[in-house]
From TrEMBL, chains A, B:
Keywords: DNA-binding, Pyridoxal phosphate, Transcription, Transcription regulation. GO terms for molecular function: DNA binding; DNA-binding transcription factor activity; pyridoxal phosphate binding. Transmembrane segments: none annotated. InterPro entries: Aminotransferase_I/II_large, HTH_trans_reg/aminotransferase, PyrdxlP-dep_Trfase, PyrdxlP-dep_Trfase_major, Tscrpt_reg_HTH_GntR, WH-like_DNA-bd_sf, WH_DNA-bd_sf. Residues 16-84 form the HTH gntR-type domain. Pfam families: Aminotran_1_2 (PF00155), GntR (PF00392). The keyword Transcription applies. This is HTH gntR-type domain-containing protein. In the C-terminal section; belongs to the class-I pyridoxal-phosphate-dependent aminotransferase family.
């Protein structure tokens, strides 16, 4: 008889009933080939004594195993492992102390995906973390959002949401959001032109996955948004890079490429380009719209932080121009609300959205009806717009302060052009100041700079760093600049 | 001079400032080629008079346009459209009353995706909706979840979440969930074997996308889970179907296929298979584990409603057996918590998860830290397990009641085997009672049956209907059975 006293480990403090623990562990022993078909099991009395348990507990375990066909009970003869189980070669359980095989022995092939940049891992203990450009959480209307959640988390809403399958977003949220977008972006869309996603990223992935086939060529900017670039590559596309200068993506260069290559898709961030923060000039916008119509070019317009424009009144998106339906407009509410609120969207023709919603159903079967309900109510009440106004005022001032201080204190090592909006500055370090070194030294001084670590593992060569100012107080900015000054002195 | 009074529509109730409305609309007119380069604009005084506005408002609009290079101001000569803009052929604005091109004229190619099943759209006004198998919302611990949200929605949590990039789930949630899974499923995983996703669906898609290349062959069941099947097809795979009987997927048939074909992946739901609700027998489980080791076969084990097993104590997942790391185990908390709480997960080797997290970053850059925080706290406090216990008791009783009533009242038209767990019954209608007709007639009588509409648009031929009992009271079940009895009498 096997040493069941040692084989079966009972945890009386576990939330799993003891008899279930016994049954589960016996099944494992069978699956491992330690208990073989037709092998006898100890009597309930003897096993109970061995384990210091009541006999009824062991009986309950055995009864479960009988019901599951693992064990047979022979009248007056006791219990034995079912004879019907296929014979398994016994393995020494000491060879593999793990209950599972999740130790990396998997033999099947899968993609390694080393081309996708690693995102920064933040260890605790830094005095200040400068992010890639995220909102100030101190002004977030927490109480108002909570009030909406409280209203929504009722049985009726939960019940209703179980029966509905609004893969592309709930009707009421799309209604509220489409009005907001029409008012703020010079669009004239209907709710059926709108699909809700988990952040802009899911919208980029879905749009690209519908359009791209392996081997297709995609026009992107240089430098560009690394996560979008990686998505296009993951889908098998080849990236054709076009330079970005102070007026945005070089549209003349785009035209040159279009004349010679068969381009399947253009990806562009016209407002506050990532990572460089530049805005596409009016002349280039107009020219690009012309090219879109001439070449019937599919375009993903990523307008992730349109809502934050400080210097001038907003440039309108390409999507508000004449593009014959070729511009897929993608945006995000996350930049307004903060990282935990991942609400993105895609705007396109009803035809394209039909397919986009279908593809989305394979990736994320339902949207977040609670978040949509809460934020939809804030949009309808005007609270959302008021928050944007408040944030713009704060961020505009912080932008000014950051640009002023960096320009005056760090001009020896940094080139900086003030962005027209957004939440980050693009610090171009001069050649003698390699960014990787600066990040590492700053880290030792309590300053964690995460706004360029995005680019770890990607092939772009630049010596720049995104400095997310929106969430930094003047004191924070002063601290960061002081550290950088010390490092670069 | 153009009739600006008619071209510019000012909405004084809009949340967009009037001067911005004017500026935006003038840009649109430029982009449409209605206002051409070097064209003169009306004076601020005259346009203000035309529109019934203060002159300063118009000046603010013009100043914005000048800052954006759309308009030039010539001293003492007034304002004109910038000469630098590329010339655009004028179009009559009456040809296209829409401000955008989202009218379906897009000329680029994209996948139609007609192979993906359409999900049911539920119009209001039904007396009862029978779903595919979702939890009873009346027992959901709303107050406890709200309390957690209230605790979490503070500045510190929001601030922390902005700086962190836990693509695969927050550390604290993975810590809580991995313990729960080890305790309940006979697993022995570490947090690094776990990735959090938006529901099980995202985990299925990501796992399949890492493994499958176009042309690869995937073993699935017949009938099978339509949304997973569609995902494999979308990724270019060919489906090889193996029958399902009362003991689950036919593993002998699986072996036959493995002997002759190069199978890249097997997809299986061992507990409460979708749609048929059958559970894989012990003998077949053991045999399948043997095949997995022999063929080093990659397996997606979809165990979406493991937590609900009524008849016996749980069968353990394949993942708890010896599989050399080849089983990717996928589950969901949504079936416990309800549709709005989309928390799924993938368990695999650390190696596979490295790639899975990378791919996830392209699809959904961050997890829902609020939901993870709230539900993680419920898992740690034991509230989650208590809720499962409560739900199991209720669902078990409802399952009994439903099976009893349907067996006694509808045996003329329905074959039914009582499932060992889960949230739905699989009603196999006899040939004379086509399901499509029954759904349509029931609908007229106030009963909306959604548990088979999943299959609309897919190629599976069966005459079955999923009857989600978990969310139905005895009165609900009685109503549904009465309607079905009337229809099939």
């Amino acid at each position: 008889m096997l040493p069941f006293k040692n084989l079966l480990l009972i945890d009386k403090n576990s939330s799993t009933a003891v008899f279930r623990q016994i049954a589960s562990q016996l099944v494992l022993l069978i699956q491992k080939g330690i208990l073989l078909p037709e092998m006898e099991l100890p009597s309930t009395r003897s096993l109970a004594a061995d384990l210091g348990l009541h006999r009824k507990t062991v009986m309950a375990a055995y009864n479960d195993l009988i019901a599951e066909d693992w064990v047979e009970s022979e009248q007056r003869k006791g219990y034995r492992i079912s004879a019907l189980l296929p014979i398994i070669k016994p393995r020494s359980y000491t060879n593999n102390n793990s209950l599972t095989g999740y130790q990396g022995s998997a033999d099947f092939l899968f993609d390694r995906l080393d081309h996708i940049p690693s995102l920064p891992v933040i260890s605790p203990g830094f005095k200040l973390i400068v992010n890639d450009g995220f909102p100030e959480t101190a002004i977030f209307p927490i109480e108002k959002v909570l009030k909406e959640y409280r209203k929504l988390l009722g049985h009726n809403v939960l019940k209703k949401s179980a029966a509905s399958w609004d893969v592309g977003g709930s009707a009421s949220f799309k209604e509220a959001l489409h009005s907001f977008l029409n008012e703020t972006r010079g669009l004239n869309i209907r709710p059926e032109n709108l699909m809700i996603t988990r952040g802009a990223q899911m919208a980029i992935y879905i749009a690209a996955a519908l359009i791209l086939k392996p081997g297709d060529q995609v026009l992107v900017s240089d430098p560009g948004y690394a996560i979008a670039d990686a998505a296009f590559r993951q889908l098998g596309a080849e990236l054709i890079r076009v330079p970005v200068d102070n007026d945005g993506m070089d549209i003349a260069a785009v035209e040159t490429v279009l004349k010679t290559k068969k381009i399947k898709l253009l990806y562009i961030i016209p407002h506050h380009h990532h990572p460089t923060t530049v805005t596409l000039s009016s002349a280039r916008r107009t020219k690009l719209l012309e090219l879109i119509r001439t070449y019937q070019l599919a375009v993903i317009e990523d307008d992730y932080d349109y809502d934050f424009q400080y210097q001038y009144s907003p440039y309108l998106p390409l999507a508000s121009g004449e593009h014959d339906g070729n511009v897929i407009y993608i945006g995000s509410l996350t930049k307004v609300l903060g990282a935990p609120f991942r609400l993105g969207y895609m705007i396109s023709t009803a035809d394209f959205l039909y397919s986009a919603v279908k593809l989305k159903s394979l990736i994320d079967l339902r949207t977040d009806v609670l978040m949509e309900g809460a934020i939809g109510a804030m949009i309808s009440s005007g609270e959302f717009s008021r928050h944007i106004k408040k944030a713009n005022k704060l961020y505009g001032a912080r932008c000014d302060y950051g640009v002023g201080l960096i320009s005056s204190e760090l001009s020896n090592c940094i080139d900086l052009t003030k962005p027209q909006g957004g939440m980050a500055l693009w610090l171009r370090f001069k050649e003698d100041f390699p960014v990787a070194k600066i990040i590492s030294k700053a880290s030792e001084m309590g300053l964690r700079l995460t706004g360029s670590a995005w680019h770890k593992g990607n092939s772009l060569k630049h010596n720049g760093l995104r400095f997310g100012f929106a969430s930094l107080s003047e004191t924070d900015i002063e601290f960061a600049v002081a550290v950088l000054k010390k490092i670069t002195a």
